[in-house]
Amino acid sequence: MRTKLLIASVIIIVFLLALPTGAAEPLSLAEYLNLVSQQNLELQLAQVKLERADLLYQRAVAVNLANGSKQATKQAISDYGQAQAVFAQSRGTVLQGAVSAYFQVLLAQQDLEIQGNRLNLVQERREITDRKVGKGIASELELLQATVAVQRAKLDYERAQQTYQEKMLSFNLRAGVSGVPQYGPAQPPIYPIVKYNESVVVEQALGNSQQLRRGAEQVELAELAVAKAEAEGVAPLALELAKTELLQAQLEAKLQKQQLRADVQGGLHTLRALEKEIALTQLDIEVEKAKYMTAQRQYTAGLLTDGELTQAVTDLWEAQRRELLAKQNYALQLLKFKELIGEELE
Fold first, then answer.
1. How does DSSP assign 102-134, residue by residue?
2. Contact by Cβ (8 Å): 337, 267
3. Rounded CA gap, 10 and 127, in Å?
4. Nearby residues of 80 by Cβ (< 8 Å), 6 or more positions away
5. 72-98, pLDDT tens digit by residue?
6. Fold classification of 1-186 (topology level)
7. Residue 183: DSSP 8-state
8. Per-residue pLDDT tens for 7-39?
């Protein structure tokens, strides 16, 4: 009987994350994000709003040039920059949700397999207990307990199936697909850890930042307001107010630049810490695999109970889950960091 249970345990340890998804086409994370960028309805709406802002900007510039109003032209440029920032924020939020959805399906796949393997274990144990009862070496109470364990495992498996189906629907809905899921995640991404040079990425972020450009535009607008006030000979208080607003715009622009530097440096440090976390979880998996193989041999020799072998299997499952969670955290941070410095997630 131990040999039969051991075979079942060996099957458990084969962790196949790519569970059958019917006709669903497997997508890498990069492919999924590209599809979401093209098909997501929220992004399509944000794109239309940006195009509308562009048209309003072009109209305002044309009118202002005809009137000779430099300040109004600068304001139109600033308004369009704000619309671009809103679109970028909407896109970032949608893509962050897409990364989470991708890994949520993988985690649901993992949990579904775990629950299926646990169900196989308790069913095998119930069969063994039933035979022991027939031989008079186990009680009816033990059989009842084994039967209850099977029913609980079935319920957990059904819940895992439902969760997996819900995550798949959400995964596809973000890509503009409703109804029967057409797509599913492929294997978890294996990241070629990107080595960023801190000074280089800080300058890259400063050069690509829309927020800094908007800050510079506000300074220019404030400068134009001061020049206009001086040229028109406005009241001293009005001129002082314009100068104060200019100083405020200048200080805000400096503060934005300072904060962006700090954000890039902090984001890079977080990214490096998460790289180490992935490496540590992979080491944990190797340790738990070795412990499981030892437990198998001890179980075959009669030195471990069913529960002790199950615990060894569970520890390995948990290590694999921690690796997947670490990869999810890395993917989310990498997306945030690339957005911060003005790069696309490849």
1. HHHHHHHHHHHHHHHHHHHHHHHHHHHHHHHHH
2. yes
3. 18
4. 53, 54, 56, 57
5. 666 777 777 778 888 888 888 999 999
6. Outer membrane efflux proteins (OEP) (1.20.1600)
7. E
8. 444 444 444 444 444 568 999 888 999 999 899
